[in-house]
């Protein structure tokens, strides 16, 4: 085995952490390149797994530098095969794109607005008392909350709820509205 920094064989046999450090420095970039070229999803993590598998068996490797190289790359190949098997069993991850999602149903409000013309809406609202008409306009058309509507009309939230309830009940009684409510 040669030192990666000097490309010379060390004068005395290296063992323990120094041997692992030398092996890692010598082969890490080659193993990383191999795993990257073979399409491993996370090549750096796979490379670390390779060297963690090699470390405990480093003393049992025979065949000198060629045997060590063969052993390291056989472990790297096994990790690559494991990664490809895992990828084939993992479902494909797709990002969510809300503009392409067509699972939404149209709301009852949208359906009613598509069926009824603005003139008809004004005619229906014209049959309501002024306060009820104002509450429905602020709540449904302007989209204000109960509290915001109450503040705009200088009334309590309870009074706004009551006016809205009465207005909707009155509208449901009208024959023109019943036509839109039937499917």
Describe the structure.
The chain has 183 residues and is an all-alpha fold. Helices cover 66% and strands 0% of the residues. The protein has nine helices and no strands. Helix 1 crosses helix 3. It is rod-shaped. Mean pLDDT is 81; it is low at 1-13.
Please outline the helices and strands:
Layout: H1 17-37, H2 43-54, H3 64-89, H4 108-115, H5 118-126, H6 130-141, H7 146-153, H8 157-173, H9 175-181
Helix pairs in contact: 1-2, 1-3, 2-3, 6-8, 7-8
Helix tally equals: 9
Shape: rod-shaped
Please state the CA-atom Rg, rounded to the nearest Å: 37 Å
Oligomer: single chain
| Secondary-structure-derived class | mainly alpha
Helicity range = 55-70%
- Can you count the beta strands? 0
Largest sheet: none
What's the order of the H and E elements? HHHHHHHHH
Strand content: under 5%
Report, as a whole number of angstroms, the end-to-end distance: 83 Å
Give the overall pLDDT as a whole number. 81
Question: Uncertain runs with pLDDT below 50, 5 residues or more?
Answer: 1-13
